[in-house]
Specification:
homotetramer, mainly alpha, Arc Repressor Mutant, subunit A, Tetracycline Repressor, domain 2, 9 helices, DNA-binding
DNA sequence: AATGAATGAGCCTTCATTCAT
DNA sequence: GATGAATGAAGGCTCATTCAT
């Protein structure tokens, strides 16, 4: 029912209560991440989350409205962090090759340091609510726009090939994502750090002029 | 309990009845595929499958033992078809470049023609039974072995780069898989046929010497 | 938003504040009536009332003690109004026939002008607290006593038949109540005004000597 | 989900199983009636019904689909019985006065002998499903049609007054219904048998020419 | 082989009420 | 007086699976 968005609140009004509320919400999301990563969304029960977060069922519903609400908030939160970190990283690059390397490199690092969230983000986002899908689409669009705005000059300058827009991401990130996915689901044991340079080179090769 | 494996049955004894049985099993798998593709595995109930397959619940359990049994049989069946088709396709190739092109090309074609199954195979295979995981691993290993056996000479001959074994698949199939995945989940509207050549070239570029 | 705690209360009796309190209570009862009439007592949640009354949950409990408390107050309030209005109306009558007509007439008018409350009063009063049942019984008894005291002389004077005491109300009010009930629950579309005279005559016929 | 209508089944196919099924459904309805009459529909839990009917929760849902489904079936069943009994009773009458007396008389008798069902039918039918409302309306319409068809000749013959159609039922049944309602809800202790004749006379008086 | 009634543990969610601020 | 976060018992319902016929 509630699902209050206190995130953007300036925090002036009753900071004490708001802070406590925020802390509680975060502890819930943390617990949920553990559960989802371990058991999957469907496999996780509200009770599982409630136990791990040391929070009553009532509070849980007071803050998130539903189990789906938790899953959505967590997903959007995680993807937002990854995107923002990625943009921060590439924005300090001054040429195309450096930027492409940064994309692969940051993906490897973030993914290695945030394995549970990475695993969760790799899970399919099937039954999100229409509103959540909207929010997700917007986040995705904003990210893609920012990335393309950044890379466009490189293409114009002739550093990178001119390709259909929807192929850049698969070409650059596809291989490393596939590698990471297989690693996260236990198909092969080696983390991606050792092959980071290899995949970064391949990515650059695929899009350089 | 039941889970009869009639696949390898010699089929001599009472062919009429066995054929009917086989037809029924196939109609169940067909119904299950539709359900899984639409609703996800967890979201599909035995009742859903039963309704679509025009088969009683009792029969369903008689033939497959459990809901999981259906999901496993369907998954292994599908992946087997894809693998066998792929091997058939590359085995007629006579050099590395042709073979890599064939891999990407066949993946695009099969995927376009078997969208529901492709979608199902892309779904995570989390909670399969230990036995099914074994069967899956074996299928995977056999396939990988066959593929590597086929490609090894090209590497030895110097047509392809020498790379860590677990990077070939991501490098060759990663981009097109990522593209197809995004297409299947509705993220972008264009099917992969138009960009088939582009991705085939990229794949070859990534692994050629 | 959050709490502006302008608590300047020194605790003395301040008519201004009391008036504000009264206004708030009335706005709650008003909101509750709408909810009860629409959703039924059981179907209405404290939250529903709170939202419509623009009043916090805490205040709601501060003033009424419980959901049941609201329902009771509203019911007793409503029935009190109806009874008082009815008595006022018949007390100005000078003979039996006029009085019986007045009963039917006032019921029709009040009911037409206070449809939501009429609907609420027609709902069964099952799970009121023992105390509320007491208050209700007392209200009922007082009303019946007042009415019978008023009508007794007419019976003694021979204007009305001598009947078992518990049959007067059903004979006089039963038909019009049944008609109104059917109208309020949507069974037939016509309000009772057009048939007021008809039912008033029938009532008089049923009890006149 | 199911809510199977085996009532009209000719019962040829597998009579044994069908009979058992029917018996089970009836025992559930019986248990439900007791609960509803005692605790009200909302106040009754599925568990209450399940305990009294000696039936598993699963079976309960298998046969009725939902708690609401039970309440609806019970209501429609009961009103059907009352209507059919009433029609049977009045159809053997040969003049208007006798018929009106029969209506009041049968209502008193049926109500006295089926107190729990009478109490249940007097409860409001608020949240029935659209389909159930349809069924109810149809039952009501068919009944009203049959009754009016029967009474029409009496009006034409001049035995009864010409009145608006929607006033006959309140005039004839209103008083006795109000009396019975008050009795069933404990407002006064005397059953209606003693005043049956009184109310029958009043009813006839209200509509005779 | 086929059928579908029966089972009941367990799930998500609601909601009246309390209480610290 | 006012606020709304917190609580948790209890409810309706689902669904994989079993089993007598």
């Amino acid at each position: 029912m509630t699902g209050s968005n206190n995130q953007t609140s300036t925090g002036r009004a009753r900071p004490g209560r708001t802070a406590a509320t925020q802390a509680r919400k975060e502890s819930v999301l943390e617990a949920a991440l553990e559960c989802f990563a371990e058991l999957g969304i469907e496999g996780t029960t509200i009770h599982d989350i409630q136990r791990r977060s040391n929070c009553s069922i009532g509070s849980l519903y007071h803050h998130f409205g539903s189990k789906e609400g938790i899953a959505e908030e967590l997903f959007l939160d995680g993807i937002g962090r990854l995107n923002r970190g990625m943009l921060r990283k590439i924005k300090v690059c001054s040429n195309a090759e450096q930027s492409v390397h940064a994309v692969v490199g940051y993906y490897v690092e973030w993914t290695t340091r945030n394995q549970p969230m990475a695993r969760y983000l790799h899970s399919r986002d099937v039954d999100f609510s229409p509103q959540a899908r909207q929010r997700l689409k917007r986040i995705h669009r904003d990210y893609i726009t920012a990335v393309f705005t950044f890379f466009a000059p490189f293409v114009e300058r002739g550093e990178m090939r001119v390709l259909p827009l929807d192929t850049y991401v698969p070409l650059i990130s596809g291989p490393i994502q596939e590698y990471v996915r297989r690693w996260l689901s236990g198909h092969h044991p080696n983390g991606p750090r050792k092959v980071k340079a290899l995949f970064a080179d391949a990515a650059w090769n695929a899009v350089k002029s």
